[in-house]
Amino acid sequence: MSSRTVIRGGLVITASDELHADVLIEDTRIAAIAATGTSAADAWTAERTIDATGKYVIPGGVDAHTHMELPFGGTFASDTFETGTRAAAWGGTTTIIDFAVQSVGRSLREGLDAWNAKADGKCAIDYGFHMIVSDVNQDTLKEMDLLVEEGVTSFKQFMAYPGVFYSDDGQILRAMQRSAENGGLIMMHAENGIAIDVLVEQALARGETDPRYHGEVRKALLEAEATHRAIKLAQVAGAPLYVVHVSATEAVAELARARDEGLNVFGETCPQYLFLSTDNLAEPDFEGAKYVCSTPLRPKEHQAALWRGLRTNDLQVVSTDHCPFCFTGQKELGRGDFSKIPNGLPGVENRMDLLHQAVVDGHISRRRWIEIACATPARMFGLYPKKGTIAPGADADVVIYDPHAEQIMSAETHHMNVDYSAYEGRRTTGRVETVLSRGEDVITDRKFTGRAGHGMYTPRSTCQYLL
User: Fold this and answer.
1) What's the DSSP call for residue 364?
2) Please, which residues bridge with residue 20 across strands?
3) Nearest to 466 by CA among 183, 147, 152
4) Model-level pTM greater than 0.85?
5) How many angstroms separate the CA atoms of 31 and 428, rounded?
6) Which of 162, 182, 294, 382 has its CA 20 to 30 A from that of 408?
7) Strands 4-13 and 18-26, how do they pair?
8) What CA–CA distance (Å, rounded) separates 275 from 297?
9) Region 434-454: what's the mean pLDDT?
10) Residue 223, Cβ neighbours under 10 Å: how many?
Protein backbone atom coordinates (compact mmCIF):
# COMPACT_ATOMS: atom_id res chain seq x y z
CA MET A 1 0.00 0.00 0.00
CA SER A 2 1.40 3.37 -0.96
CA SER A 3 1.05 6.30 1.45
CA ARG A 4 0.62 9.95 0.60
CA THR A 5 1.38 13.04 2.66
CA VAL A 6 0.71 16.65 1.69
CA ILE A 7 2.55 19.56 3.28
CA ARG A 8 0.41 22.65 2.77
CA GLY A 9 0.91 26.38 3.01
CA GLY A 10 4.62 26.68 3.77
CA LEU A 11 7.36 28.71 2.16
CA VAL A 12 9.40 26.14 0.24
CA ILE A 13 13.06 27.20 0.20
CA THR A 14 15.73 25.53 -1.93
CA ALA A 15 19.14 26.76 -3.06
CA SER A 16 17.55 28.27 -6.16
CA ASP A 17 13.96 29.21 -5.30
CA GLU A 18 11.52 30.43 -2.68
CA LEU A 19 7.86 29.66 -3.32
CA HIS A 20 4.69 29.45 -1.25
CA ALA A 21 3.86 25.91 -2.30
CA ASP A 22 2.35 22.61 -1.31
CA VAL A 23 4.46 19.47 -1.42
CA LEU A 24 3.08 16.03 -2.24
CA ILE A 25 4.97 13.02 -0.87
CA GLU A 26 4.28 9.49 -2.08
CA ASP A 27 5.95 6.80 0.02
CA THR A 28 9.63 7.76 0.28
CA ARG A 29 9.86 10.36 -2.49
CA ILE A 30 8.64 13.82 -3.32
CA ALA A 31 6.01 13.39 -6.03
CA ALA A 32 5.05 16.95 -6.90
CA ILE A 33 5.22 20.62 -5.90
CA ALA A 34 2.56 23.18 -6.78
CA ALA A 35 1.90 26.75 -5.74
CA THR A 36 -0.42 26.98 -2.76
CA GLY A 37 -4.03 27.64 -3.72
CA THR A 38 -3.72 26.48 -7.31
CA SER A 39 -6.14 23.92 -8.72
CA ALA A 40 -3.31 21.40 -9.09
CA ALA A 41 -2.38 21.56 -5.43
CA ASP A 42 -5.99 21.70 -4.23
CA ALA A 43 -6.79 18.50 -6.13
CA TRP A 44 -4.28 16.40 -4.19
CA THR A 45 -5.65 13.89 -1.73
CA ALA A 46 -3.61 12.21 0.97
CA GLU A 47 -3.94 10.19 4.14
CA ARG A 48 -2.10 12.90 6.03
CA THR A 49 -1.87 16.67 5.77
CA ILE A 50 0.78 18.75 7.51
CA ASP A 51 -0.11 22.42 7.96
CA ALA A 52 3.05 24.45 7.38
CA THR A 53 1.40 27.88 7.33
CA GLY A 54 3.86 30.49 8.55
CA LYS A 55 6.72 27.97 8.44
CA TYR A 56 9.56 27.15 6.09
CA VAL A 57 9.62 23.87 4.21
CA ILE A 58 13.28 23.08 3.56
CA PRO A 59 15.37 20.09 2.48
CA GLY A 60 16.89 18.02 5.25
CA GLY A 61 20.41 19.15 6.03
CA VAL A 62 23.42 17.25 4.69
CA ASP A 63 26.31 17.27 7.17
CA ALA A 64 29.30 16.08 5.17
CA HIS A 65 31.77 15.95 8.07
CA THR A 66 31.03 13.97 11.25
CA HIS A 67 33.05 11.62 13.46
CA MET A 68 30.82 9.25 15.41
CA GLU A 69 32.69 6.86 17.72
CA LEU A 70 36.06 8.09 16.41
CA PRO A 71 39.06 6.77 18.37
CA PHE A 72 41.30 9.73 19.19
CA GLY A 73 43.79 10.66 21.89
CA GLY A 74 43.30 7.50 23.91
CA THR A 75 39.50 7.76 23.99
CA PHE A 76 36.46 7.71 21.68
CA ALA A 77 34.09 10.39 20.44
CA SER A 78 31.16 10.22 22.84
CA ASP A 79 28.36 10.07 20.26
CA THR A 80 27.52 6.67 18.81
CA PHE A 81 25.87 6.39 15.42
CA GLU A 82 22.59 5.95 17.28
CA THR A 83 22.86 8.99 19.56
CA GLY A 84 24.61 11.15 16.97
CA THR A 85 22.11 10.60 14.17
CA ARG A 86 19.20 11.13 16.54
CA ALA A 87 20.71 14.46 17.59
CA ALA A 88 21.31 15.35 13.94
CA ALA A 89 17.62 14.80 13.23
CA TRP A 90 16.64 17.06 16.13
CA GLY A 91 18.70 19.74 14.40
CA GLY A 92 17.13 19.27 10.96
CA THR A 93 19.91 17.18 9.40
CA THR A 94 18.73 14.07 7.55
CA THR A 95 22.01 12.82 6.04
CA ILE A 96 25.50 12.58 7.49
CA ILE A 97 28.73 11.50 5.83
CA ASP A 98 31.05 10.07 8.45
CA PHE A 99 34.69 9.02 8.18
CA ALA A 100 35.81 5.40 8.13
CA VAL A 101 39.43 5.08 9.25
CA GLN A 102 42.22 3.05 7.70
CA SER A 103 44.75 2.08 10.36
CA VAL A 104 48.41 2.09 9.36
CA GLY A 105 49.34 -1.37 8.11
CA ARG A 106 45.72 -2.29 7.43
CA SER A 107 43.58 -2.15 4.30
CA LEU A 108 40.96 0.42 3.39
CA ARG A 109 38.43 -2.40 3.23
CA GLU A 110 39.09 -3.41 6.81
CA GLY A 111 38.49 0.14 8.01
CA LEU A 112 35.35 0.55 5.94
CA ASP A 113 33.95 -2.76 7.16
CA ALA A 114 34.56 -1.71 10.76
CA TRP A 115 32.64 1.53 10.31
CA ASN A 116 29.81 -0.19 8.46
CA ALA A 117 29.48 -2.52 11.44
CA LYS A 118 29.34 0.41 13.86
CA ALA A 119 26.58 2.14 11.90
CA ASP A 120 24.49 -0.75 10.59
CA GLY A 121 21.05 -0.86 12.18
CA LYS A 122 21.82 2.07 14.49
CA CYS A 123 21.14 5.23 12.50
CA ALA A 124 17.98 7.33 12.68
CA ILE A 125 18.81 9.10 9.39
CA ASP A 126 20.64 8.17 6.18
CA TYR A 127 24.41 8.04 6.11
CA GLY A 128 27.44 7.54 3.91
CA PHE A 129 31.18 7.28 4.41
CA HIS A 130 34.35 9.03 3.38
CA MET A 131 37.56 7.04 3.77
CA ILE A 132 40.49 8.30 5.84
CA VAL A 133 43.66 7.14 4.07
CA SER A 134 46.45 6.80 6.62
CA ASP A 135 48.81 4.46 4.76
CA VAL A 136 49.37 5.14 1.05
CA ASN A 137 50.90 2.17 -0.78
CA GLN A 138 50.23 0.27 -4.02
CA ASP A 139 47.52 -1.87 -2.42
CA THR A 140 45.80 1.18 -0.95
CA LEU A 141 45.83 2.95 -4.32
CA LYS A 142 44.16 -0.05 -5.99
CA GLU A 143 41.57 -0.19 -3.22
CA MET A 144 40.71 3.46 -3.85
CA ASP A 145 39.52 2.48 -7.33
CA LEU A 146 37.30 -0.27 -5.92
CA LEU A 147 35.79 1.99 -3.28
CA VAL A 148 34.91 4.66 -5.84
CA GLU A 149 33.09 2.02 -7.89
CA GLU A 150 30.96 1.03 -4.92
CA GLY A 151 30.05 4.55 -3.79
CA VAL A 152 32.77 5.65 -1.37
CA THR A 153 34.02 8.47 -3.56
CA SER A 154 36.01 10.74 -1.24
CA PHE A 155 39.26 10.21 0.64
CA LYS A 156 40.62 12.25 3.50
CA GLN A 157 44.29 12.86 4.14
CA PHE A 158 46.06 14.70 6.92
CA MET A 159 48.99 17.07 6.76
CA ALA A 160 48.64 17.16 10.57
CA TYR A 161 49.02 14.58 13.37
CA PRO A 162 52.42 13.00 12.64
CA GLY A 163 52.48 9.42 13.87
CA VAL A 164 48.69 9.09 13.72
CA PHE A 165 47.01 10.09 10.44
CA TYR A 166 49.82 12.08 8.81
CA SER A 167 50.72 11.69 5.13
CA ASP A 168 53.84 13.24 3.63
CA ASP A 169 53.79 15.17 0.35
CA GLY A 170 54.76 12.13 -1.69
CA GLN A 171 51.92 10.04 -0.27
CA ILE A 172 49.50 12.88 -0.82
CA LEU A 173 50.62 13.32 -4.42
CA ARG A 174 50.20 9.60 -5.15
CA ALA A 175 46.67 9.57 -3.72
CA MET A 176 45.78 12.71 -5.66
CA GLN A 177 47.10 11.20 -8.89
CA ARG A 178 44.93 8.15 -8.27
CA SER A 179 41.85 10.25 -7.58
CA ALA A 180 42.49 12.19 -10.79
CA GLU A 181 42.10 8.87 -12.60
CA ASN A 182 39.21 7.28 -10.69
CA GLY A 183 37.06 10.38 -10.09
CA GLY A 184 37.49 10.45 -6.33
CA LEU A 185 37.77 13.66 -4.32
CA ILE A 186 40.67 14.22 -1.92
CA MET A 187 39.66 15.97 1.31
CA MET A 188 42.56 17.62 3.12
CA HIS A 189 43.20 18.51 6.74
CA ALA A 190 45.59 21.33 5.89
CA GLU A 191 47.91 22.18 8.78
CA ASN A 192 51.70 21.80 8.83
CA GLY A 193 51.81 19.11 11.50
CA ILE A 194 55.59 18.74 11.49
CA ALA A 195 56.11 22.43 12.30
CA ILE A 196 53.21 22.46 14.78
CA ASP A 197 54.79 19.61 16.75
CA VAL A 198 57.96 21.71 17.15
CA LEU A 199 55.92 24.63 18.49
CA VAL A 200 53.98 22.32 20.85
CA GLU A 201 57.22 20.95 22.27
CA GLN A 202 58.63 24.45 22.75
CA ALA A 203 55.45 25.75 24.40
CA LEU A 204 55.29 22.89 26.88
CA ALA A 205 58.99 23.37 27.69
CA ARG A 206 58.16 26.99 28.61
CA GLY A 207 55.40 25.78 30.94
CA GLU A 208 52.62 26.96 28.62
CA THR A 209 50.15 24.13 29.27
CA ASP A 210 46.70 25.76 29.33
CA PRO A 211 44.11 25.12 26.56
CA ARG A 212 44.63 28.56 25.01
CA TYR A 213 48.11 27.54 23.88
CA HIS A 214 46.51 24.94 21.59
CA GLY A 215 45.37 27.86 19.46
CA GLU A 216 48.65 29.72 19.71
CA VAL A 217 50.86 26.88 18.44
CA ARG A 218 48.55 25.87 15.59
CA LYS A 219 49.23 29.11 13.79
CA ALA A 220 47.03 30.51 11.02
CA LEU A 221 50.12 30.83 8.81
CA LEU A 222 50.72 27.07 9.12
CA GLU A 223 47.14 26.43 8.00
CA ALA A 224 47.67 28.80 5.07
CA GLU A 225 51.02 27.21 4.14
CA ALA A 226 49.53 23.72 4.15
CA THR A 227 46.50 24.89 2.19
CA HIS A 228 48.79 26.43 -0.43
CA ARG A 229 50.89 23.26 -0.59
CA ALA A 230 47.83 21.03 -0.93
CA ILE A 231 46.52 23.20 -3.77
CA LYS A 232 49.83 22.99 -5.64
CA LEU A 233 50.05 19.22 -5.17
CA ALA A 234 46.50 18.87 -6.50
CA GLN A 235 47.41 21.10 -9.43
CA VAL A 236 50.42 18.89 -10.24
CA ALA A 237 48.21 15.78 -10.01
CA GLY A 238 45.38 17.32 -12.03
CA ALA A 239 42.98 16.43 -9.23
CA PRO A 240 40.18 18.31 -7.48
CA LEU A 241 40.73 19.25 -3.82
CA TYR A 242 38.34 19.86 -0.91
CA VAL A 243 39.91 21.54 2.13
CA VAL A 244 38.08 20.74 5.36
CA HIS A 245 37.38 22.98 8.39
CA VAL A 246 38.93 26.19 7.01
CA SER A 247 39.34 28.60 9.92
CA ALA A 248 41.78 31.36 8.97
CA THR A 249 41.70 34.48 6.79
CA GLU A 250 45.00 33.49 5.18
CA ALA A 251 43.71 30.03 4.21
CA VAL A 252 40.58 31.53 2.63
CA ALA A 253 42.87 33.78 0.57
CA GLU A 254 44.75 30.72 -0.74
CA LEU A 255 41.47 29.08 -1.78
CA ALA A 256 40.19 32.27 -3.41
CA ARG A 257 43.40 32.65 -5.40
CA ALA A 258 43.21 29.06 -6.65
CA ARG A 259 39.58 29.43 -7.64
CA ASP A 260 40.36 32.67 -9.46
CA GLU A 261 42.83 30.60 -11.48
CA GLY A 262 39.99 28.24 -12.44
CA LEU A 263 41.11 25.31 -10.30
CA ASN A 264 38.73 22.73 -8.87
CA VAL A 265 39.53 23.69 -5.29
CA PHE A 266 36.82 23.83 -2.65
CA GLY A 267 36.59 24.88 0.97
CA GLU A 268 34.47 23.97 3.95
CA THR A 269 34.12 25.86 7.19
CA CYS A 270 32.25 25.00 10.38
CA PRO A 271 29.93 26.85 12.79
CA GLN A 272 32.58 26.95 15.52
CA TYR A 273 34.79 29.16 13.37
CA LEU A 274 31.88 31.43 12.50
CA PHE A 275 30.52 31.84 16.04
CA LEU A 276 33.34 31.03 18.50
CA SER A 277 36.88 32.35 18.92
CA THR A 278 40.11 32.21 20.91
CA ASP A 279 38.20 34.03 23.66
CA ASN A 280 36.51 30.67 24.33
CA LEU A 281 39.85 28.81 24.33
CA ALA A 282 41.09 31.26 26.95
CA GLU A 283 38.20 30.67 29.39
CA PRO A 284 39.59 30.12 32.91
CA ASP A 285 39.64 27.00 35.12
CA PHE A 286 40.37 24.69 32.17
CA GLU A 287 36.96 25.55 30.65
CA GLY A 288 38.82 26.42 27.45
CA ALA A 289 39.42 22.70 26.92
CA LYS A 290 35.80 22.42 25.78
CA TYR A 291 36.76 24.41 22.68
CA VAL A 292 39.91 22.52 21.65
CA CYS A 293 39.58 21.35 18.05
CA SER A 294 41.83 21.33 15.00
CA THR A 295 42.09 23.50 13.04
CA PRO A 296 41.77 25.67 16.17
CA LEU A 297 39.43 28.53 16.91
CA ARG A 298 40.88 31.83 15.70
CA PRO A 299 40.67 35.43 16.93
CA LYS A 300 37.29 37.01 16.13
CA GLU A 301 38.65 39.11 13.28
CA HIS A 302 38.95 35.95 11.14
CA GLN A 303 35.15 35.52 11.16
CA ALA A 304 34.55 38.35 8.69
CA ALA A 305 36.72 36.60 6.07
CA LEU A 306 34.83 33.34 6.56
CA TRP A 307 31.43 34.99 6.15
CA ARG A 308 32.69 36.84 3.10
CA GLY A 309 34.03 33.57 1.66
CA LEU A 310 30.62 31.98 2.13
CA ARG A 311 28.92 34.89 0.35
CA THR A 312 31.38 34.92 -2.57
CA ASN A 313 31.46 31.10 -2.87
CA ASP A 314 35.16 30.88 -2.11
CA LEU A 315 33.83 28.64 0.69
CA GLN A 316 31.06 26.36 -0.50
CA VAL A 317 30.00 24.18 2.44
CA VAL A 318 29.35 24.45 6.17
CA SER A 319 29.75 21.12 7.95
CA THR A 320 30.23 20.50 11.66
CA ASP A 321 33.30 18.28 12.09
CA HIS A 322 31.14 16.90 14.91
CA CYS A 323 33.55 15.02 17.17
CA PRO A 324 32.35 15.31 20.77
CA PHE A 325 34.32 14.49 23.90
CA CYS A 326 32.84 14.97 27.35
CA PHE A 327 34.49 17.60 29.53
CA THR A 328 34.49 15.24 32.50
CA GLY A 329 36.82 12.31 31.96
CA GLN A 330 37.75 13.05 28.35
CA LYS A 331 38.75 16.69 27.82
CA GLU A 332 40.26 16.45 31.30
CA LEU A 333 42.89 14.05 29.97
CA GLY A 334 44.77 17.19 28.98
CA ARG A 335 44.94 18.93 32.34
CA GLY A 336 48.49 20.16 32.62
CA ASP A 337 49.27 19.44 28.95
CA PHE A 338 47.06 20.99 26.25
CA SER A 339 48.47 18.59 23.65
CA LYS A 340 46.67 15.71 25.38
CA ILE A 341 43.20 17.30 25.19
CA PRO A 342 41.12 15.26 22.72
CA ASN A 343 40.50 17.46 19.65
CA GLY A 344 36.86 17.95 18.76
CA LEU A 345 33.60 19.79 19.40
CA PRO A 346 29.93 18.78 19.45
CA GLY A 347 27.72 20.51 16.89
CA VAL A 348 25.71 18.17 14.63
CA GLU A 349 22.48 19.33 16.31
CA ASN A 350 23.29 23.05 16.15
CA ARG A 351 24.39 23.67 12.55
CA MET A 352 21.07 24.39 10.81
CA ASP A 353 19.88 26.67 13.63
CA LEU A 354 23.14 28.62 13.81
CA LEU A 355 23.09 29.15 10.06
CA HIS A 356 19.49 30.33 10.24
CA GLN A 357 20.65 32.79 12.87
CA ALA A 358 23.18 33.95 10.30
CA VAL A 359 20.24 34.65 7.98
CA VAL A 360 18.52 36.62 10.74
CA ASP A 361 21.75 38.54 11.39
CA GLY A 362 22.18 39.39 7.70
CA HIS A 363 25.34 37.38 6.99
CA ILE A 364 23.70 35.18 4.31
CA SER A 365 20.39 34.87 2.50
CA ARG A 366 17.80 32.15 3.08
CA ARG A 367 18.64 30.43 -0.19
CA ARG A 368 22.36 30.58 0.59
CA TRP A 369 21.58 28.93 3.95
CA ILE A 370 20.05 25.99 2.10
CA GLU A 371 22.82 26.02 -0.50
CA ILE A 372 25.72 25.71 1.95
CA ALA A 373 23.96 23.34 4.37
CA CYS A 374 21.97 21.07 2.02
CA ALA A 375 22.40 21.41 -1.74
CA THR A 376 26.13 21.97 -2.19
CA PRO A 377 27.27 19.24 0.23
CA ALA A 378 24.91 16.88 -1.62
CA ARG A 379 26.39 17.92 -4.97
CA MET A 380 29.97 17.95 -3.71
CA PHE A 381 29.70 14.36 -2.52
CA GLY A 382 27.52 12.77 -5.19
CA LEU A 383 24.11 12.72 -3.48
CA TYR A 384 22.22 15.33 -5.53
CA PRO A 385 19.31 15.51 -6.38
CA LYS A 386 18.39 12.51 -4.24
CA LYS A 387 19.42 14.64 -1.26
CA GLY A 388 19.76 18.36 -0.70
CA THR A 389 16.68 19.72 -2.46
CA ILE A 390 12.91 19.61 -2.63
CA ALA A 391 12.02 18.47 -6.14
CA PRO A 392 9.99 15.68 -7.76
CA GLY A 393 11.92 12.44 -7.48
CA ALA A 394 14.08 13.55 -4.55
CA ASP A 395 14.00 11.60 -1.31
CA ALA A 396 11.32 13.00 0.97
CA ASP A 397 13.87 14.38 3.44
CA VAL A 398 11.90 17.44 4.50
CA VAL A 399 12.06 19.79 7.49
CA ILE A 400 9.21 21.98 8.69
CA TYR A 401 11.08 24.91 10.23
CA ASP A 402 9.60 27.63 12.43
CA PRO A 403 11.58 30.79 11.62
CA HIS A 404 10.09 32.73 14.54
CA ALA A 405 10.51 30.33 17.46
CA GLU A 406 13.26 31.31 19.86
CA GLN A 407 15.50 28.94 21.76
CA ILE A 408 18.47 28.99 24.11
CA MET A 409 21.13 26.42 23.29
CA SER A 410 22.16 24.36 26.29
CA ALA A 411 23.55 21.00 27.33
CA GLU A 412 20.42 20.60 29.45
CA THR A 413 18.19 20.49 26.39
CA HIS A 414 20.38 19.18 23.55
CA HIS A 415 20.32 15.54 22.44
CA MET A 416 24.01 14.98 21.69
CA ASN A 417 25.72 12.50 24.04
CA VAL A 418 28.10 15.03 25.55
CA ASP A 419 28.09 16.87 28.87
CA TYR A 420 28.47 20.42 27.60
CA SER A 421 27.32 22.68 24.78
CA ALA A 422 29.83 24.71 22.81
CA TYR A 423 27.05 27.31 22.47
CA GLU A 424 25.75 27.29 26.07
CA GLY A 425 23.31 30.13 26.68
CA ARG A 426 23.28 31.36 23.06
CA ARG A 427 19.87 32.69 21.96
CA THR A 428 18.84 31.84 18.43
CA THR A 429 15.77 32.49 16.36
CA GLY A 430 14.39 29.56 14.39
CA ARG A 431 13.76 25.94 15.34
CA VAL A 432 13.00 22.59 13.77
CA GLU A 433 9.41 21.50 14.24
CA THR A 434 8.98 18.32 12.16
CA VAL A 435 11.49 16.21 10.24
CA LEU A 436 10.74 13.58 7.62
CA SER A 437 13.40 11.15 6.41
CA ARG A 438 12.38 9.38 3.21
CA GLY A 439 8.78 10.24 4.05
CA GLU A 440 8.90 8.78 7.54
CA ASP A 441 8.58 10.99 10.62
CA VAL A 442 11.71 11.29 12.71
CA ILE A 443 10.74 14.43 14.64
CA THR A 444 7.01 15.18 14.94
CA ASP A 445 5.96 18.49 16.52
CA ARG A 446 9.16 18.59 18.60
CA LYS A 447 8.98 14.94 19.68
CA PHE A 448 11.35 12.20 18.54
CA THR A 449 9.29 9.62 16.67
CA GLY A 450 12.08 8.00 14.69
CA ARG A 451 13.91 4.77 15.31
CA ALA A 452 17.37 3.31 15.20
CA GLY A 453 17.76 1.39 11.96
CA HIS A 454 15.54 3.62 9.82
CA GLY A 455 18.65 5.31 8.41
CA MET A 456 20.03 3.62 5.30
CA TYR A 457 23.59 3.48 4.03
CA THR A 458 23.70 5.61 0.89
CA PRO A 459 26.31 4.98 -1.82
CA ARG A 460 27.46 8.14 -3.60
CA SER A 461 28.44 9.10 -7.12
CA THR A 462 31.53 11.22 -7.78
CA CYS A 463 31.67 14.96 -7.20
CA GLN A 464 28.94 16.84 -9.10
CA TYR A 465 30.42 20.28 -8.40
CA LEU A 466 33.45 20.33 -10.68
CA LEU A 467 34.14 23.24 -12.97
Assistant:
1) S
2) 11
3) 183
4) yes
5) 33
6) 294
7) antiparallel
8) 10
9) 98
10) 31
